[in-house]
Amino acid sequence: MKIFKIVTKKDIDKYKKLIVDFYQPYYPGENYKKALENSNFIVICIEDDKIIGAGRIITDSVRYAMIHDLIVKKIFRKQGIGLKLVKMMVNELKKIKICQIGLVYEKKIPWLKKFYQKTGFAEDKYCNYLVIRK
Hints:
single chain, five-stranded mixed sheet, 4 helices
C-alpha cells in the first residue's frame, strides 16, 4: 500500500533518515542533507517502509515557490505517483495563496517537459529562467 505524506520542517527529523536514504543515490554528499533540512516541505510516497517518490518545495511563503528534485524510482514510474506528488505540492501551495509556482526540469530528459505540462505547468510568456552554475 502506497502512503503519501507532506513532511514539514517540524516533522523532518521523524522522516530524515528515510528521505536522505532515498535521495542519496541521486545526490551524494553531505551538503544535500542541509538542502533537505532547508526545504519548506517535502512530499513523499512510501511503500514497504521505503520512499519510492519524493519532491521538495522552497518558498518565501507569500509570492513564489519552486518545486525541486521530484524523483520517482524508475520501477515505480507510470503509476501516477509523480502526478500525485506534484498535485499535493501545488495544492499545499495554493492553501497558502502562493502567486507563482515554478520548477526547473532537465532538458536532457525529453519526456519530463510533457509530464509537467500534464500537471498544469506551462512556459511563461512574461519571464524566462536564467542560471549561474558553479
